[in-house]
Amino acid sequence: MIEKTRRNIPENHPIRELFHTLTERGFEQMKLHDQETIQYITNLLTDFVDVKNIHRVKDDAGHTIGNLFDILRHADGALSPEVRRDYYQHIGDVTLFNLGLYPESLTYGRHTVSPDFYAEQGRRSYTIAAAMDSSRKTVIFRKLSQQFEQCVVGLNWVKLYINDPFYQYVLREFDVT
Length: 177
Prior knowledge:
By secondary structure, this protein is mainly alpha-helical. Helices cover 64% and strands 0% of the residues.
């Protein structure tokens, strides 16, 4: 099962503005100026401040499922199209987040995954989510699928900015760390 995304951070919270600024700057490096994509990534970063949003997929016993292969299996087994779309959107979001901010986590430990395979699963998941959605979100999912690598590199820039001593000071001041 997949839990609903928790939206605990208010729209006017300073961390949202900080992530928006960092995302804009990171995406400028890639010559991506699409405000819809920047806003989606900003919301993703803000939502993932709450770690429970990264680990939304649970097994029948309520245990967190973090392995990409297990999440894909659950997504394929979901009966409802809306639930399947949520799974694939979540897979796209997590792969984008991990490749952009924590790529070293893919090649460390006992669950080593090829970054190319991981990226392909993220791109594919957004494509599937777009195909299953009849709302306005279809456009953003298609953009994320088509520009997946550029979004990853944009998030790599966000990571560089976050690791900058000035931004570390700002994050401490906002009590984010």
